[in-house]
Amino acid sequence: MASNSNQPQTEISEHCGSKPKRIAIGIAPLGFISIGIVPMGIITVGIVPMGVVSLGVVAMGVVNASIVGMGIFSAGITTMGIRVWSPSGSFLEQKANKTDSGSSKNIFAYPTRVQAEAEAKKLKCIGVHKMGKLWMPCASHANTK
Q1: Cβ distance 22 to 33 under 8 Å?
Q2: How far apart are CA 24 and CA 37, in angstroms?
Q3: Domain ranges of the chain
Q4: CB 115, CB 86: distance < 8 Å
Q5: Are the C-beta atoms of 43 and 32 separated by less than 8 Å?
Q6: CA distances (Å), 11 to each of 1, 22, 29, in order?
Q7: Whole-angstrom distance, CA of residue 101 vs CA of residue 112
Q8: What is the radius of gyration, based on Cα positions, of the chain?
Q9: pLDDT tens for residues 54-77?
Q10: Is the pLDDT of residue 104 over 60?
Q11: Integer distance in angstroms from the first to the last C-alpha of the chain?
C-alpha cells in the first residue's frame, strides 16, 4: 500500500515486528524498559504492563506488583501465581490438607484432582479445573463464589 506521507516507511510502523528500543514510552511501547499504556518489555511500568518485572494496575509477568497481578511472583490486591502476596492471603500457598476448609470462604488449590473434587462437593459446585500444576474445585473461577 502506497503512502502519501513524506515520512519514511520506517517511522510509520515502529512497533509491529520492529526491534525493541532500550527505553520506550507511550501507548503499547516495546522496549527493554517500557513505560506507558500496555507496555511490553523486560521492565514495564504502566496500566497493563507485560514483562519480566511489571509494575502497574493489571500486571502480567514473572515478577509483578499491582492491583491485579498474574505471574510467578505476584504482590497486590488480587494475585495469581506460584508465590503471591495479597492482603487476603494466597490460595496457592494454603496447605492442601487443611481440615476446616468448609468454614473458610477462601477457595484453595490442591495437588490432586481427587482432593479438588472432594472440596467441590463441600462447596456444592460441579467439576474441577487446573491451575498450573494444582487442581481447584468447581469448573471455573466464576463458579467458586
Answers
A1: yes
A2: 11
A3: 20-90, 95-145
A4: no
A5: yes
A6: 15, 17, 14
A7: 16
A8: 21
A9: 888 888 888 888 888 888 888 887
A10: no
A11: 51
What is the DSSP secondary-structure string of 6-74? SS-HHHH--STTPPPEEEEEEES-EEEEEEEES-EEEEEEESS-EEEEEEEEEEEEEEEEEEEEEEEEE
C-alpha angle 105-100-140 in degrees, rounded to nearest 5: 45
Q: How far apart are CA 28 and CA 127, in angstroms?
A: 38
Burial 52-67 (b: 16+ CB within 10 A, else e): ebbbbebbbbebbbbe
Here the cell at position 63 is: 515478577
> In one letter, which amino acid is 67?
I
Set of cell numbers at residue 113: 484432582
Share of the chain above pLDDT 70, in %: 70
Q: Which residues pair with 136 in a beta bridge?
A: 129
Q: Of the candidates 118, 85, 86, 90, which has an alpha carbon nearest to the alpha carbon of residue 102? A: 118
Q: Are strands 40-46 and 21-27 parallel, antiparallel or unpaired?
A: unpaired
Query: Are the beta carbons of 27 and 35 closer than 8 angstroms?
Result: no
